[in-house]
Amino acid sequence: MIYNNEKIVSVGKGSPLTLSWELVTHCQFKCSYCYFNPYESSTNYSEVMKIVLTKIKNIKEPVEMTLLGGEPTLHPEFHHLIKSLYEMNHVTKIDVITNFQPTVEFWRPLLPYKDKIEIVLSYHVEYSQKNFFKKIEALKNDFNMNIIFLVHNELKYLSKLKEAADKYFELGLETLPITFAKLVDRSSGSAEYFEYQAETLSFLSEQEKRVKRLKYPEVIPVTTEAGTKIEINQMEFSSKNMNRFKGWKCQMNALIIHPDGMVSYPCTNQKKHILFAELGKRNLVCAHEICPCEAYWNFTKTKNS
């Protein structure tokens, strides 16, 4: 991996334990590219919540939570769950990955917990989301927010993506980080980007330039063989295919908690019920051609010599 003619030998800077909790299986949307394929379930989400919260409460190190789904805001006890996590001192951050369908009033009860919350807004171009930006304007001074534009690979959606991107930049939301992300195809059992045509790649390139001019772009820290430390814009990192770490040593400090209480260890096929799962860091050698999870790029990865 080369950047500015220097060989990169490590990526990331380490991270606290990250728990990605899939709160529910269902969603208001059914996007064609969704790897989760949301569905209704007979799972008693409230009972699973009690078990998971008890397990998290007993963790002895700092924890960053990511709440997702399905659509996490559809959990029957969403506000209570947020309050419970907030009151745990070792839970330092709570990210909510949402399609932002709930009304502004839905979010107001979370204001007492806002110092730990970041709302990560996913823009899905297959659906109208006509009030998406109005709600951002209404809440931008109340919550930390982060926007992910999922860039569809089908050309029929390109004009709508351009319109939405222009709307974002017209609002002057420089303090709200934004990422334009390519879609990941997991249909084969592994992860790879969908194929993109030249027009969409050109759109992505233009947005990359615009994002670089923002006040707080998302960046990935890297170190070169010469000891040079560089921060690379996250979109550039992806567009230059730098998220390929096969054979690298990785300090994976993340777990996925599923709606039924099972726990997956990312990058492996290992799965256990949360009652028996060990929640902590693991050292592994990356076996995948691509790392599609931006959240995992900051876990320390070292190239084998």
TrEMBL record:
InterPro entries: Aldolase_TIM, Radical_SAM_PqqE_MftC-like, rSAM, rSAM_sf
Names of the cofactor(s): [4Fe-4S] cluster
GO molecular function, one term: catalytic activity
UniProt domain Radical SAM core: residue ranges: 23-186
Domain of life: Bacteria
SUPFAM superfamilies tied to this protein: Radical SAM enzymes
Keywords carried by this UniProt record: Iron, Iron-sulfur, Metal-binding, S-adenosyl-L-methionine
Entry annotated with the keyword Cytoplasm: no
Name the UniProt record assigns to this protein: Radical SAM protein
The organism of origin for this protein: Peredibacter starrii
